[in-house]
Amino acid sequence: MTLTARASLAAVGSGAAIKMIPFSLLDLSPIPEGQTARHAIENTVELAQAAECAGYTRYWLAEHHNMPGIASAATALVIAQVAAATTSLRVGAGGIMLPNHAPLVIAEQFGTLAMLYPDRIDLGLGRAPGSDMATARALRRHMAPEDSFPQDVQELIGFLSKGGGEHGVQAVPGQGTEVPIWILGSSLFGAQLAAYLGLPYAFASHFAPDMLGQALHIYRDTFRPSKYLDAPHAMLASGVCVAPTDEEAQVLRSSQILAFANLRTGNPGPLPCPVERVEDHVPPVVLQQVQHALSCSATGAPETVQARLSEIIAHYQPDEIMLTGAIHDNGARIRSFELAAEVLTAF
Question: Does residue 15 surpass a pLDDT of 70?
């Protein structure tokens, strides 16, 4: 970054009167068009190493199934790869879709990770299956009609506690590891549950921004202190794509927009190559929907991104921010997150 750009960032940061907060990275391990899942996981490891050097606090991976453009379905395994390739970065799930799993299995998986990488593993839990119903059926032998997520969360916490589970069932490894649990959400339910249990809360505003403000208000207003937290701790997610110029960033961002549009129209696939004019490739109605869904984001040169992230942070006052963004070229993706880190440390 040039001295002029750095001076501009400092000016924006001081004008916005925003203090620096911890920043983290959510990676869906995208499979770029023309590459394989192995390439995607190798890209993830390379990005995680760069993120550690750039000052990111956490590196989270997400569970998605039956998605030809995402390589992190076996989330715990990819977390292990990332943790093994880094030394201090907190690595975790953002998240594990708990309805897909027995709580004991997740306790054993993340308990094993916590034994291998002490004080570095996070476990974010989501209530949605993260897939279509046919895939959900393939993941589970029995489809329970009731919503057991709150009970499953508490059962999982029990397995990871020093006291262990009920009825003599223990998670080995797992018991006593006290892996930090986060509740994830894109609606109000997760906010209410996280507040009730006294757990940290992360909102998926990078693709579902509509209820962000209301969810944070409910979480903070109804939070009950617990042995895990004395006060509410909220993290929001924001898309980011940073390049030397606004124009270059918009082109790089087009891959994410195209991928989301393909998903919306029932045609998911690998992460598309970038295009100069995304509006020539997506119907106007679909493009409008996608742009709204991805509106909690910052795209452009460092100065542009600094101004937008300052606005988001000032408005919602998160305790942490998690950045995400899919770029076809992994070198450009790494550089984007490095520039984003420089932007955030300039606050």
Answer: no
Count Cα neighbours of 314 within 13 Å in the Cβ-side half-sphere: 14
- What single-letter DSSP state applies at residue 170? -
Looking at residue 11, its pLDDT comes to: 39
Angle formed by the axes of helices 330-345 and 302-316, nearest 10° = 60
CA distance 60 to 48: 10
**C-alpha dist (Å) from residue 289 to 11, 148, 189, 200, 262:** 34, 32, 23, 30, 12
Distance CA 193, CA 185 (A): 10
Asked if the 3-345 domain carries CATH number 3.20.20.30, the reply is yes
State the chain's mean pLDDT as an integer: 92
pLDDT band at 135 (very low <50, low <70, confident <90, very high): confident
CA angle 165, 168, 172 (to 5 degrees): 60
Using alpha carbons, select from 115, 135, 84, 234 the residue that is nearest to residue 177: 115
Half-sphere exposure of 31 (CA within 13 A, CB side): 17
Residue-range domain boundaries for the chain = 3-345
Is 11 strand, coil or helix? helix
* 18 vs 328: CA distance, rounded Å: 31
Statement: residue 13 has pLDDT above 70? no
User: What pLDDT does residue 212 have?
Assistant: 98
DSSP state for residue 32 in the 8-state scheme? B
Contact 326, 29 (CB under 8 A): no
DSSP per-residue letters across 271-334: BPPP-S-GGGTS-HHHHHHHHHHT-SEEEESHHHHHHHHHHHHHHH--SEEEEE---SSHHHHH
> How far is the first Cα of the chain from the last one, in angstroms, to the nearest whole number?
16
Spatial separation of the C-alpha atoms in residues 14 and 169, rounded to whole Å: 54
Model pTM above 0.90: yes
**Which is nearest to 262 in space by CA: 30, 10, 24?**
30
Closest of 110, 260, 131, 235 to residue 184, by C-alpha: 235
Chain mean position to CA 224: 25
